[in-house]
Amino acid sequence: LLCGNFRTSILESNLWLSSGGTRSVLHYDADHNIHCLVSGRKDFIMIPNKYADQLDLADKKKSGSGFSHMNMDQVDLLHNPQVSEVPWTWATLLPGDCIFIPSKYFHQVRSYGRSVAATIMW
């Protein structure tokens, strides 16, 4: 990943350490992201950004990063009935797995036991 022109395009890299039982809000990042798991297990819920208007966003801005107010453990279809029409994908990462998350693609991340992961954003 650090060869050629790619290295000059890296904007941010992160090391994620979790004791387990954690989860993010449903959110999107401004930049492309490769998330690689070193140890543990993580589950991802992925939703294409074209469904942004149906996801109860905290801020309706068109640039940068953002998140949804929805409780992903218990989606309230009375308050957000449009969500029932939104397609999503579930992915499980085990040690050695990586997932590509395109810019502005909605995702929620869950960690169960201890885990170590790294991300590169560009």
Task: Give an overview in words.
With 122 residues, the chain is mainly beta. Helix content is 3%, strand content 39%. It has one helix and ten strands; from the N terminus they run H-E-E-E-E-E-E-E-E-E-E. The chain has one helix at 6-9; strands spanning 12-18, 22-23, 27-28, 33-39, 42-47, 66-67, 89-93, 98-101, 106-111, 115-121. The strands form three sheets. The chain has a four-stranded antiparallel sheet, with no helix packed on it. Strands 2-9-5-7 form a four-stranded antiparallel sheet, with no helix packed on it. The chain is globular and about 45 Å long. The relative contact order is 0.42.
Provide the fold topology.
Layout: H1 6-9, E1 12-18, E2 22-23, E3 27-28, E4 33-39, E5 42-47, E6 66-67, E7 89-93, E8 98-101, E9 106-111, E10 115-121
Antiparallel strand pairs: 1-10, 2-9, 3-6, 4-8, 4-10, 5-7, 5-9
Please summarize the sheet with the most strands. Answer: 4 strands, antiparallel
Strand order of the largest sheet: 1-10-4-8
Label the structural class: mainly beta
What distance lies between the first and last C-alpha atoms, to the nearest angstrom?
A: 11 Å
What integer value in Å does the Rg equal?
A: 15 Å
**What's the helix count?**
1
Helix content, binned percent = under 10%
What are the low-pLDDT stretches, counting only 5+ consecutive residues below 50?
A: none
Which term fits the overall shape?
A: globular
Helix-strand topology string: HEEEEEEEEEE
Q: Using DSSP, what is the number of strands?
A: 10
